[in-house]
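Dear Dr. H.,

I hope your travels went smoothly. While you were away I took the liberty of generating a structure for the chain from your last submission, since the lab meeting agenda had it listed for discussion. I wanted you to have the full record in hand beforehand rather than looking at slides cold. The sequence, exactly as received, is reproduced here:
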Amino acid sequence: MDMNQKRKTTTSIGEMTKGVQRTMVTLTLCFLLNLLFFCLASAISRDVDHLISFKNSLPNPNLLSNWSQIHGVCEFQGVKCKGNHVSSLTIRGLPLEANFNSVSTHILSLENLEALSLHSTNLNGSISALANCTIRLKELDLSSNNLHGSVYDTASLVASCHSLQSLNLSNNYIGQAFNRFSPVLSQLRMLDLSNNMITTNEDIHWLFSKLRLLKHLDLSNNTVKGTMPQITNCNSLQYLTSGERTISCLDLSSNQLTGTIPVGMFSGCLNLTYLNLSSNYFTGMAPPDIEACTNLITLGLSKNNFSGVFPNLSMLVMPRLQVLELAFNNFNGSLPKSISKHTNLELLDLSANKFSGLIPQPLCTSNISRLKVLHLQDNYFTGSIPHSLSNCTNLISLDLSLNLLSGSIPGSLGSLLNLQDLIMWQNNLNGEIIIPSELSSLKSLRNLILDYNNLSGTIPDRLANCTSLNWISLASNRLTGSIPIWINKLENIVILILQNNSFTGSIPPGLGDCKGLIYLDLSNNKLNGSIPPTLAKQSGKLKANLIVDDRLYFSEIIHNNKLCHCMNIYLEFDGIRYNDLMRVPIVRYCNSMPGQRAFVSITNQNLINFISMIFLDLSYNQLSGHIPNEISTMSVLSALFLEHNHLTGPLPQELGGMTRLQSLDLSHNMLEVSIPSSFSALSLSDLDLSNNRLSGPIPEQGSLVTFPEYEFENNSGLCGLPLPPCNSKSVPKEDGSQQSSTNHGSTRVLWIVLGLLFFIFFIIGFVIGQFLR
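The corresponding predicted structure, in token form, is as follows:
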């Protein structure tokens, strides 16, 4: 074989070898691809099997209707995928009624699951069941369910989920049977056990010692008793890793912790950013060594028994501080001017303490201030309202109520274009211009509450420019003039309180055009004329989806006190101690009367549930004429006060159809005729019909007979329970005057006959007596 043939043979063999190699590579790749596809399909199939098995374990599988083989797993309700694998499952607010064991068996074992949220799904059972967690699971939210177990069981759950970093078990029943023996849980960074049943501070101490990388620990709203457990230098909370301190949030609020905060408790908490100890029973000075927490952004110490002066020196070393809440304590003394150095402060709440002196002029040193909420109510601040507050250009809420402030309202506040709350009731404010013209530019103003001051003059027309107003309260001042007719143009007005002033003229009929007006109090003024039937125009026309700010109010109903000329005392008292309401003269003056109570207002609720006014007080005026029948169309009215006026005519039969009416006072008028029988349908808790010209029987059915006699007194013609029973003299018969005169004649004859018989028996007795002698 020559050389050319050998070369050809060699080349041919080489090409065949390469072809075989290529074929082998191709076959290998196909095999691997098929194997990968099979594995992927198998993994997807396992995800589907797990989820459908969980669905079938539910009492009502139809709640997850699209969890079926005909849908892809990534189309299942609440599922999110990465690469066709279930990576996240979120179901919230669906009443699954699943047992935790079923969750552990079918869901936590999903191979690629990274996050699971089953918030408020009525889960039940014990978390002590061994969890079959996938190695990828990092976030687990089982909050607002019916799960139970101990803090130790929580630790066991975390230990079985090796990569878990965030666990939320808030609003369950965790806390029974503390066990101190458990593994170190170094990987967990967020643990929320708020709103549970944890009772011992040993649990807290254990958590501090075991959860070494913890960044967020929330134990609020439990019933932990005892003193604050030692966390010396925060060593159990801070663990240095990769050059980063890891703890950032500690919330122990709303528990039952007592005593003083030990020295050194927070001396090592350099990187703590959120600390909330509110709503406990701590005493003594503000937490010592708090200045060590130089990175704090939020500090909450409200609703304790801390005392002493404002912790200014501690605050000065916290340049990042944005939220400072010290309300409802016993701090005293004056506010230092250096508070203005906290330029990052957004919320400052010092309400319900014993601070005194002047409000610092440089509270906001310049218009770069970030302050949004300033609450100084229920203290003893004196002097005038600082004009420098105009530098707080981001201010949304300003409350200076229940202090000793004097002078006028600064017109410079009109530059606070973001202001929504201007609340300054119970001070010594005065001035004939109650609302400076500059304030008319506050388009965002929603709550204007200036009750119980010495303000005089009229309500300025410029206030009509504040079109966002929903609460106007100017009670117990010295205001005069008429009630402005432009109020009906305030589309968002919900509460209007002008009681105890000197307003004159008639009630504007246009108030019936205020479709959201649910509380109207014009009592104790000098209003005259008739009650406008148009007040009922807004019935059934309440503005849809109208929402009012969430605020508290105090209400005191006064009975039979001639010295208290208002039936109702109505006060907004967010940030006010209930006992400190006695500082309000009218409350203190009338305090001996029954009916005192505090309410949480209907605010922060969707008012679509109400279709008309719920409170109407026009008492202590000079109103005349009849009670309009149209008032009965206010179907949800719960309180109607028209006493001490000059109203005449009969009681409208239609009032008996107001089944939600609870308080009705029509006393001290000139109402006449009888009480309608329809009043038997009323379910009243308060009633006064005294001092009128009513007659006839009181309806025997219903709640009317349950009231004391004085609620009906000085109506000479009324009879029946609770008054003396009706008789022929007091109750005219239905047969007419002829039958009445006939009955009276028969009665006279009967008395004459009885008199003659008595005389005859007397003579006979006398004769027999003489004979027996």
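Two observations you may find useful: The mean pLDDT is 81. The two ends are 192 Å apart (CA to CA).

With kind regards,
E. W.
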